[in-house]
């Protein structure tokens, strides 16, 4: 199967969802680190 | 002897009902600005209720065969159930996860949840029109292949569960020690049942819309709808508890222990932090939903712009406000973020059930003023009942006679 664009490939392989999920996990870790740092400081 | 006991019960009942006043004093105490506004709302809402049940749904609403679900389903039912999720969220945190610091807000959260569900059923009766047929899916005609069957059964059983969870407060008010002890023993079981039921029916409400892939706009229609409804309901429940506890601690200040006033601050920050993290997760999940069906091209349309308003303006924005509020230990910011989230959740349910529904049809639905007025009436009655119960039961404080008794 040939894919003309990157988006076609990502759609077929559900790669978009995986990319968003991986991005979300990385961002969430950073988000949680910032959120939790305040509580750690208080303790 | 029996007559003496009966007299004692009557006296206790009268004392609880009239808050220790005689009838004359009690009725005089009812004249307050809030009650006057409530009376005005009811003076319009009650005649509208009579019209709805005597002349049919068409007499008060703009609903039709194309748009059979409108304002009552979007606001009263879908938003009502989601915002009532605080009961099971806080119950689970306290009894199952051992987060005891949230204990002071447990009873008001359960009461909000119980009344929220109760008035969802009341609101649903306006839509269904024949309340006497409510028990049909329970006892007469099973529809085991329908999502609606699951929702009906779950709302009924979960109402019972929440009643059991809140019942110790009633028994404490009347001083019924033995029956309270019996009810308290059921708490853990009821909480576990509550989590199971809530997880299923919160997501089932989203699953209701899976039947309409051609009617619901592709940006809102996704096979992840049940997950979205469940995650957003937890956030809605948590932020609603922040909102409700803020109001309760102002309106019922005299009832609350000064220590609980201080702990509320810590509780609000804890809930704000949790809600912020969950909103962030929900924000990311929304994009997974768009990617799943490859619906990116719809974003640059008018409804696409509206979708962006919902996702950025009512999910990410309150998430950041809650985040900043927690970081700066700013109570006002956390409370603002909570109200913003509650509004965002209502907007999402209205989008799914009304705005993005039948988006290609020419005859779009817009609610009549009578539909909106009936919803305002239902909410007002809900607030009056909440105040009635809080004034008569140890909801916001610990009953002095039961301080040493176990609560689960």
Structure report:
Chain A has 43 residues and is an all-alpha fold. In chain A, 81% of the residues lie in helices and 0% in strands. Chain A contains two helices and no strands. Chain A is rod-shaped. Chain B has 408 residues and is mostly helical. Chain B has a single domain, classed as Formate dehydrogenase/DMSO reductase fold (Up-down Bundle), CATH 1.20.1630. In chain B, helix 4 packs antiparallel against helix 6, helix 4 packs parallel to helix 15 and helix 5 runs antiparallel to helix 10. The longest helix of chain B has 35 residues. The radius of gyration of chain B is 22 Å and the shape is globular. The chains are: A mainly alpha (43), B mainly alpha (408).
Keywords, separated by commas or semicolons:
heterodimer, A: 43 residues, mainly alpha, 2 helices, 81% helix, B: 408 residues, Formate dehydrogenase/DMSO reductase fold, 15 helices, 72% helix, globular
Beta percentage of chain A is: under 5%
Helix content of chain A: over 70%
Radius of gyration of chain A, in Å, reads 17 Å
Counting DSSP H or I runs of 4 or more residues, the number of helices of chain B is: 15
Strand/helix succession of chain B = HHHHHHHHHHHHHHH
Question: What structural class results from the helix and strand content of chain A?
Answer: mainly alpha
- Average pLDDT of chain A, to the nearest integer? 79
Pattern of helices and strands of chain A: HH
Find the biggest chain interface: A-B, 17 and 16 residues
Cα shape of chain B: globular
């Amino acid at each position: 199967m040939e894919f003309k664009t990157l988006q076609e490939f990502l759609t077929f392989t559900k790669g978009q969802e995986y990319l968003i999920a991986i991005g979300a996990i990385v961002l969430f870790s950073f988000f949680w680190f910032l959120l939790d740092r305040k509580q750690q400081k208080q303790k | 002897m029996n007559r003496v006991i009966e007299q004692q019960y009557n006296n206790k009942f009268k004392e609880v009902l009239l808050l220790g006043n005689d009838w004359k004093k009690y009725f005089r105490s009812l004249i307050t600005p809030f009650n006057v506004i409530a009376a005005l709302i009811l003076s319009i809402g009650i005649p509208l209720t009579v019209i709805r049940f005597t002349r049919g749904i068409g007499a008060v609403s703009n609903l039709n065969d194309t748009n059979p679900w409108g304002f009552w389903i979007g606001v009263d039912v879908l938003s009502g159930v989601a915002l009532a999720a605080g009961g099971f969220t806080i119950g689970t945190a306290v009894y199952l996860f051992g987060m005891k610091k949230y204990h002071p807000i447990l009873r008001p959260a359960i009461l909000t949840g119980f009344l929220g569900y109760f008035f969802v059923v009341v609101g649903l009766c306006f839509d269904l029109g024949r309340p006497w047929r409510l028990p049909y899916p329970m006892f007469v005609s099973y529809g085991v292949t329908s999502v609606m069957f699951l929702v009906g059964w779950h709302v009924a059983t979960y109402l019972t569960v929440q009643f059991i969870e809140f019942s110790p407060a009633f028994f404490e008010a009347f001083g019924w020690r033995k029956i309270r002890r019996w009810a308290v023993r059921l708490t853990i079981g009821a909480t576990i049942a509550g989590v199971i039921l809530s997880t299923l029916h919160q997501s089932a409400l989203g699953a209701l819309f899976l039947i309409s892939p051609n009617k619901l706009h592709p940006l809102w229609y996704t096979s992840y709808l049940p997950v979205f409804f469940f995650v957003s309901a937890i956030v809605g429940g948590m932020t609603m508890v922040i909102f409700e506890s803020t109001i309760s601690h102002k309106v019922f200040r005299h009832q609350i222990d000064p220590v609980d006033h201080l702990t509320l601050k810590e509780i609000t920050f804890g809930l704000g932090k949790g809600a912020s993290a969950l909103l962030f997760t929900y924000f990311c999940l929304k994009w997974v939903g768009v990617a799943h069906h490859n619906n990116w091209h719809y974003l640059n349309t008018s409804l696409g712009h509206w979708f962006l308003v919902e996702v950025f303006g009512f999910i990410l924005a309150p998430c950041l406000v809650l985040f900043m509020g927690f970081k700066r230990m700013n109570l006002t910011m956390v409370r603002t973020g909570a109200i913003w989230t509650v509004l965002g959740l209502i907007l999402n349910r209205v989008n799914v059930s009304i705005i993005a529904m039948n988006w290609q049809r020419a005859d779009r639905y817009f609610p009549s003023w009578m539909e909106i007025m009936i919803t305002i009436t239902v909410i007002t009655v809900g607030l009056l009942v909440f105040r009635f119960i809080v004034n008569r039961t140890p909801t916001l404080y610990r009953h002095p006679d039961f301080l040493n008794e176990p609560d689960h």
